[in-house]
Design brief:
Elements: E1 12-13, H1 14-21, H2 25-33, E2 43-45, E3 51-53, H3 55-62
Antiparallel strand pairs: 1-3, 2-3
Length: 68
């Protein structure tokens, strides 16, 4: 998987995660709002309250390795 060889920060914006995953920002935010993505593992609120995604953990969630 090519993404494993890229230098990606641990936490990225929802907008960048949308570009990299193919999910829209709206879809990612809906998954967060519905509790489908575990807080503190797949996503966090930054100190400025911006939602940030851990792309590596998101991929693990996508592959069924992390439960909601």
């Amino acid at each position: 998987m090519l993404i494993k060889n890229l230098l990606i920060p641990k936490w990225i914006t929802v907008a960048l995660a949308a570009e990299l995953t193919g999910y829209s920002s709206k879809a990612l935010n809906q998954k967060i709002d519905k509790g489908q993505l575990p807080y503190g593992v797949v996503w966090i609120n930054a100190p400025d309250n911006r939602r940030m995604i851990n792309l590596q953990q998101f991929m693990r969630w996508l592959e069924g390795e992390i439960e909601t």
